[in-house]
Amino acid sequence: MELETIYSNSGMMFSVLKDKESEKHFLEVVCGTIGMYEVTIPLTREEVLDFKIDPSRIHRLVKAVIDNPSEIKKERVGGHA
Amino acid sequence: MFLRIEDKTTGVLVDLDGQGNVIRITDPAATPGAQSPPLNKSNPTRAGPDAPQASLFKGLGDVNSSPWLADGRIGVKAHIEEFRNGGSALLPKNSFEKYFKQGGTVGRSDGFFITTRQAMDKLLLETKGDNALIKKRLGIEAGNLAWDAELVRVDVYNPLLHNARFPHGMELGANPKFRWGGLTSGGMPEIAIDPVKSGDFQASPVKRQ
C-alpha cells in the first residue's frame, strides 16, 4: 500500500490519504491528549464523494474519531493503523 | 543497567541508572568545569533533558494571557500555576513534522493538552523508556501500533502565555473517563492551552525500549 496525502488540516490535525494502487481513501486523525497518537480508518465511497464536494464535510467524522477512536476503529476493520 | 538519553537539538546527555535515577547530565554548551555532578532523586532541579535550557522557561503569563488565573474557585488558580514553569506532551514524530510544517503550530485548535514538565520527567524516568509502560500510564491501547513509531516530546516554555485553562470535558478527545479537577484518569496533572508556534517550545526525541 502506497499512501499519498491529498488533504491535510493542521488546525484539527487530520489528513485524507489515498492508496495509489487501489485508490481507496483513508482518514488519518491525531487523537489523544497528553499522549497523542494517530488513528487511521478507511473511508466509504459516500464519504469520499462528500469530501470531494466540500472538504469541511469530513469534520464531523474527524470529531467522531477523536472522541471515540477505539469504537470507530472497531467499526471499520481494515484501517491500517 | 544503564540508559543514556540524548537531546539531539542541544547535544545534552542524560545518564540514568537501572532504577531510573539521573546519574549525570552532560551539557556540551557548558564549560568543562561546570558540568553536572552526579545527580540523584534528592537533587531534582536538574533532573530532565530540558534542564540545561532552563533560561527559556521564564514563568511568563498573567491574567491577560490566561484569564483562568482570575478564576475564584478553590484550586483553579493553584492548579494552573503548576504549569508556570513549563508543560509537556508526547506525539508521533510523523504527526509533529507534518502538521507543524503545514500550520507552523503544535496542538489542535480546540485545545492542546499538556502535563507539567516535572510530571513528564517523572513518567519517563519511572517507565525507563519502556514503551508498554508509557502506553499503560497514558491510557493508550497496547495494540496501538502508531504509538510504536518515533515519538517527540514537546516542552512548552511558558504555558501561561497561551490561554491556559482547565479541560472541561467538552474538548475533542476528552475521553469518557474525564473528571473535573485537572487530572488525567492516570492521575497526571493536565491543562489545555492554545496551539503554540515555533519559538515557544522545544521538541526532542523520546528514546524507548
Structure characterization notes:
The complex is a heterodimer of chains A (81) and B (209). Chain A is α+β, with helices and mostly antiparallel strands and 81 residues long. Chain A has three helices and four strands; from the N terminus they run ββββααα. In chain A, helix 2 packs across helix 3 (69-75). Chain A is globular and about 35 Å long. The two termini of chain A are 12 Å apart. Chain B is an alpha+beta fold. In chain B, strand 1 and strand 2 form a beta hairpin. Mean pLDDT of chain B is 77; it is low at 29-50.
Summarize it:
The complex is a heterodimer of chains A (81) and B (209). Chain A is of the alpha+beta class and 81 residues long.
Estimated radius of gyration of chain A? 12 Å
Q: Could you give the order of strands across the largest sheet of chain A? A: 1-2-3-4
Task: Compute the number of helices of chain B.
Answer: 4
Q: Per the principal axes of the C-alpha atoms, what is the gross shape of chain A?
A: globular
Please give the order of strands in the largest beta sheet of chain B. 8-6-4-7-10
State the major sheet of chain B.
5 strands, antiparallel
The sequence of SSEs of chain B as H and E is: EEEHEHEEHHEEEE
Average pLDDT number of chain A: 90
Query: Describe the biggest sheet of chain A?
Result: 4 strands, antiparallel
Strands of chain A, total number: 4
Mean pLDDT of chain B: 77
How are helices and strands ordered from N to C of chain A? EEEEHHH
Low-confidence stretches of chain A: none
> What percent of the residues of chain A sit in helical stretches (DSSP H or I)?
25-40%
Low-confidence stretches of chain B: 29-50
Oligomer: heterodimer
* Number of spatially distinct domains of chain B: 2
Q: What is the structural class of chain B?
A: alpha+beta
